[in-house]
Design goal:
- The chain contains two helices and five strands.
- Helices cover about 15% and strands about 20% of the residues.
- The chain has a five-stranded antiparallel sheet with strand order 2-1-3-4-5.
- The model has no long low-confidence stretch (mean pLDDT about 95).
- It is an alpha+beta fold.
Length: about 90
């Protein structure tokens, strides 16, 4: 089973969210479907079910590997590099 090679290098404590919603969606006038929190820097972006996919775009622009859901009641994490749940 493939494992994430990046989770051990994440900052502790977890970074504070920079926003409560996706700022790129706000600027574009679109509505995020689900939100994701970058565990490297605290950027909040919309998920791949949203029209603009800003969380994935953030990963591609920065190389930050791991995000977690920013939805109430959820706690899963995803590694973009290793393509696995963390």
């Amino acid at each position: 089973m493939k494992q994430c090679t990046h989770a051990d290098a994440l900052p502790l404590p977890e970074p504070r969210p920079k926003n409560e919603t996706c700022p790129e969606c706000l600027a574009a006038g679109t509505h995020p479907v689900q939100l994701r929190l970058c565990l490297e820097c605290g950027h909040v972006g919309c998920c791949d079910s949203s029209p603009m996919r800003h969380a994935t775009a953030h990963h591609k622009e920065t190389g930050h590997p791991v995000m977690r859901t920013f939805e109430p009641g959820e706690s899963w994490r995803w590694c973009f590099v290793d393509h696995v749940l963390v």
